[in-house]
Amino acid sequence: MFSGIVEEMGTVEAILHPTGLTALFVRARKVVGQAKPGDSICVSGVCLTVTGIHRHVLAFDVVQETLNKTTLGRLKSGAKVNLERALKVNGRVNGHFVTGHIDGVGQIKKKIWGKNYTQLHVCLSKRLLPYIVPKGSVCLDGVSLTVGRVGRDHFVIHLIPFTKKVTTLESKKEGDWVNIETDILAKYILNRAKG
After folding, report:
1. Nearest residue to 25 via CA among 71, 59, 51
2. Separation between Cα atoms, residue 191 and residue 195, nearest integer Å
3. For the segment 123-143, what is each residue's pLDDT rounded down to a tens digit?
4. Residues 126 and 77 both lie in one domain
5. Cα dihedral: 59, 61, 65, 69 (round 10)
6. What Å distances lie between residue 94 and 51, 98, 124, CA to CA?
7. Can you tell me the distance from the alpha carbon of 184 to that of 40, in angstroms, rounded to the nearest whole number?
8. How far apart are alpha carbons 118 and 110 in whole angstroms?
9. For residue 72, what is the domain's CATH number?
10. Owning domain of residue 146
């Protein structure tokens, strides 16, 4: 379980493709310090297990299903990723509860720069739209955000200067893809109402 509060941006060091999986290597400064093999780390919204650590590089094994359902399959060496360690049970939750299980990907339809914010319009599948509500929570690439407005096929979020500085979202361009995890509470409420 995570909170969607990014601890640092890491850099993809290498991507290898042994039979049956992909080995992802990410250079980090902060999260690597207390990490150990078996720990869960949120990598741009995706919960991955640390399989090894060498100096400042974390190793992860990624199965094909994860590559197909998330943006991790589009990563290249040198790419920046958002990193967050798992929550401590006795810690504060500053964002919202994030599982690291991606519901789908969305595409940035429009990016608008304001004086002290950046607005992103994110298109997503109609299957996920019922879980996105104005002033509700959403997680994009591992970042806990508040939904501003919801349209017929997209939603709008506003990035404050701090979020732009400490996450990869500011570098996203129109047409880029992001991992989306909808609010876990919305999922339970809507699924309960259907049943």
Report:
1. 59
2. 6
3. 999 999 999 999 999 999 999
4. no
5. -10
6. 28, 11, 26
7. 19
8. 10
9. 2.40.30.20
10. 104-194
Question: According to the model, what pLDDT value does residue 195 have?
Answer: 63
Token readout for 172 is: 């996203």
Give phi and psi for 83, each to the nearest 5: -125, 140
Q: Which amino acid is at 14?
A: A
- Is 166 in the same domain as 115? yes
Q: Which residue has the tokens 């990410």?
A: 26
Q: Give residues with Cβ within 8 angstroms of 35, minimum separation 6.
A: 41, 50, 53, 58, 85
Beta bridge partners of 150: 155
Q: How far is CA 113 from the centre of its chain?
A: 22
Express each pLDDT in 55-108 by its tens digit: 999 999 999 999 999 999 999 999 999 999 999 877 777 888 899 999 999 999
| Cα 34 to Cα 134: distance, rounded to the nearest angstrom | 37
Q: If residue 166 lies in a helix (H) or strand (E), which one and from where to where? A: helix 161-166
Contact between residue 138 and residue 103 where contact means Cβ atoms under 8 Å apart: no
pLDDT at 193 over 80: no
Give SS3 for 156. Answer: strand
**76 and 114 together in one domain:** no
Instruction: Give the single-character DSSP code of 38.
Output: T
Cα 132 to Cα 158: distance, rounded to the nearest angstrom: 15
